[in-house]
């Protein structure tokens, strides 16, 4: 314990060199770039831009520091981060497709953003996901092949914390060990469970074939989980990776915390024609708002909820919506806040076992305080035990909705192509008494929105993911449940399966299954798409392929909101290489 506390204290003292708790503490400098949001993308952008000593870069982060945030640092404590000081604590509107339920929508309110609070799953998606981005934006730079330098630049693949032999659990040729974000396969695996899953890949093959590495751009099949957890058994976030003490010690990089940007403002053009926005407005607790201006660019990196909120509060959005709230319109763009995409999820698809699987002494970890204390002690003293990982699942599956479903239903496939997944499956038996598959619709057709609640920028926005608003998606999620049933039909499992557990046990018709889905589905918290990219010369979309806000000079958006389509993957990985390429696009202009 003493070693652990001393280490944190040392890191904290080093990292304070260029980090401030309020704008009052900032030095008087001329800022070249103002980065709004110190999350996954913002941390990357600031780190890369400040590599050039000519640029003064300021990151403006609404949340607190990630230092000493044990709930964030320890992978196994991730589930406790919701509804804490590190969460924006958003709630959606009542969602019609979820039978008018509202759900909590966790977002990282902390340096590192959602990379500091997410589930740490490291998946890239299909190569065709990014080829589709390139196609719809008209920019080949967003294709899978052209993104490879950025994909490799951000990753630092390492041996897992338990040093087990990972030969055959990943493909080293598709990974980088020289990047920024430590990643690995799980360092706390489940040897009494995993052989069953691997045997299914042999017995059934086909859609459940073994995939050596689903981060190759070809994700279909069953493969080993990879996560943003490095060899030291701690969470790898954008803050821990791109804003290290050494990087924050740069005299041209500054980070101000606990600072909320309300709006962006038009800046006197100084000979630059058109709408010029390089000024941010910052809320203060005790006085009027203050403003700060960048000499080069303002970069919005506030995420798929925060970035459109700031744009709309500033008068950039649909003119009718803004006028209805009394917000002066400076640029009519009805695409702002639209195209919200996320992965609807089911976490309750379980099958009762006749004979329990012995999953070891940690089976009651979620409910036993003594086991939790022991797990934390093991993590603190020597980085061992179950808290070095998050989920009690070591293997993932990515599968397609059968072609016959598209033929019979008449729906078009919303995925990016035949090598992209429609469905994600997390596979295991964490309790030992039931076989579990957590399911996600990884290529949804439904689109939602983020909108303003009022003209007050401090009001939380209206969030409507609009799950199942497109009729294919309920069909797709129903097919996910069928895929789970096919998986447990393998000879190695089927004789030990009694039945599906409630609420599925009594759902036999399609209508009954659909109602269970609508009543129990949740979210993957993969918000994206609300400031989507489009070609330069079209009147739809929010940013061009260089991530400049259309119709505005001096302003870019670089975060998950720019995705025109959500990839069939956990979105943090795509955000890392969006930010890496985005930083290069900025540097190309100001080199």
From TrEMBL:
Active site (record annotation): 526 (proton donor), 570 (proton acceptor)
Cofactor: FAD
E.C. code: 1.1.99.29
Residue ranges constituting the Glucose-methanol-choline oxidoreductase N-terminal domain according to the UniProt record: 303-317
Entry keywords, A to Z: FAD, Flavoprotein, Secreted, Signal
InterPro entries tied to this protein: FAD/NAD-bd_sf (IPR036188), GMC_OxRdtase (IPR012132), GMC_OxRdtase_N (IPR000172), GMC_OxRtase_C (IPR007867)
Residues noted as binding FAD in the record, renumbered to the chain: 118-121, 261, 525-526
Protein localization: Secreted
Assigned protein family: Belongs to the GMC oxidoreductase family.
Task performed by this protein: Catalyzes the single-oxidation or sequential double oxidation reaction of carbohydrates primarily at carbon-2 and/or carbon-3 with the concomitant reduction of the flavin. Accepts only a narrow range of electron acceptors such as substituted benzoquinones and complexed metal ions and reacts extremely slowly with O(2) as acceptor.
Subunit structure: Monomer.
Protein name: pyranose dehydrogenase (acceptor)
Protein source organism: Leucocoprinus leucothites
Lineage of source species: Eukaryota, Fungi, Dikarya, Basidiomycota, Agaricomycotina
């Amino acid at each position: 314990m003493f070693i652990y506390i001393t280490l944190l204290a040392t890191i904290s003292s080093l990292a304070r060199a260029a980090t401030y708790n309020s704008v009052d503490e900032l030095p008087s400098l001329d800022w070249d770039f103002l980065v709004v949001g110190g999350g996954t993308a913002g941390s990357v952008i600031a780190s890369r831009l400040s590599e050039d000593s000519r640029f003064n870069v300021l990151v403006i982060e609404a949340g607190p520091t990630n230092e000493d945030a044990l709930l964030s640092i320890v992978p196994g404590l991730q589930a406790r981060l919701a509804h804490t000081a590190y969460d924006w604590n958003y709630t959606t509107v009542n969602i019609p497709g979820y039978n008018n339920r509202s759900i909590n929508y966790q977002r990282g309110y902390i340096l590192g953003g959602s990379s500091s609070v997410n589930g740490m799953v490291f998946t890239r998606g299909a190569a065709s996901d990014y080829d589709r981005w390139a196609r719809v934006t008209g920019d080949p730079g967003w294709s899978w092949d052209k993104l490879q330098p950025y994909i490799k630049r951000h990753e630092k693949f390492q041996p897992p914390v338990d040093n087990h032999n990972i030969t055959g659990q990943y493909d080293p040729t598709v990974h980088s060990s020289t990047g920024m974000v430590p990643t690995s396969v799980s360092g706390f695996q489940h040897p009494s469970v995993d052989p069953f899953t691997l045997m299914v890949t042999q017995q059934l093959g086909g859609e459940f074939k073994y995939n050596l590495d689903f981060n190759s751009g070809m994700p279909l099949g069953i493969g080993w989980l990879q996560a943003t957890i490095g060899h030291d058994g701690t969470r790898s976030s954008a803050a821990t990776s791109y804003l290290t003490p050494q990087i924050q010690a740069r005299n041209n990089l500054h980070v101000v915390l606990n600072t909320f940007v309300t709006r962006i403002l038009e800046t006197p053009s100084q000979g630059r024609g058109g709408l010029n926005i390089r000024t941010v407005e910052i809320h203060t607790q005790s006085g009027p708002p203050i403003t700060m201006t960048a000499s080069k660019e303002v970069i919005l990196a506030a995420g798929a909820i925060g970035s459109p909120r700031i744009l709309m509060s500033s008068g950039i959005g649909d003119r009718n919506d803004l006028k209805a709230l009394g917000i002066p319109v400076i640029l009519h763009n009805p695409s702002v806040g639209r195209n919200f995409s996320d992965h609807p999820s089911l976490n309750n698809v379980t099958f009762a076992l006749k004979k329990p699987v012995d999953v070891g002494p940690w089976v009651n970890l979620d409910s036993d305080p003594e086991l939790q204390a022991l797990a934390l002690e093991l993590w603190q003293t020597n980085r061992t035990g179950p808290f070095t990982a998050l989920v009690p699942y070591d293997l993932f599956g990515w599968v397609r909705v059968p072609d016959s479903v598209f033929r019979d239903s008449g729906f078009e496939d919303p995925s990016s192509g035949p090598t992209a997944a429609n469905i994600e499956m997390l596979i295991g038996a964490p309790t030992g008494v039931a076989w579990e598959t957590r399911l996600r619709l990884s290529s949804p057709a439904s689109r939602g929105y983020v909108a303003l609640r009022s003209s007050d920028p401090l009001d939380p926005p209206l969030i409507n993911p609009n799950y199942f608003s497109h009729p294919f998606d309920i069909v797709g999620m129903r097919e996910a449940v069928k895929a789970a049933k096919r998986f447990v039909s393998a000879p190695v499992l089927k004789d030990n399966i009694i039945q599906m557990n409630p609420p599925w046990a009594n759902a036999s018709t399609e209508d009954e299954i659909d109602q269970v889905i609508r009543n129990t589905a949740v979210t993957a918290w993969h918000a994206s798409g609300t400031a989507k990219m489009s070609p330069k010369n079209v009147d739809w979309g929010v940013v061009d392929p260089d991530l400049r806000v259309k119709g505005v000079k001096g302003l870019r958006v670089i975060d998950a909101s720019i995705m025109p389509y959500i990839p069939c993957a956990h979105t943090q990985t795509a955000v890392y290489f969006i930010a890496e390429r985005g930083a290069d696009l900025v540097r190309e202009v100001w080199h």
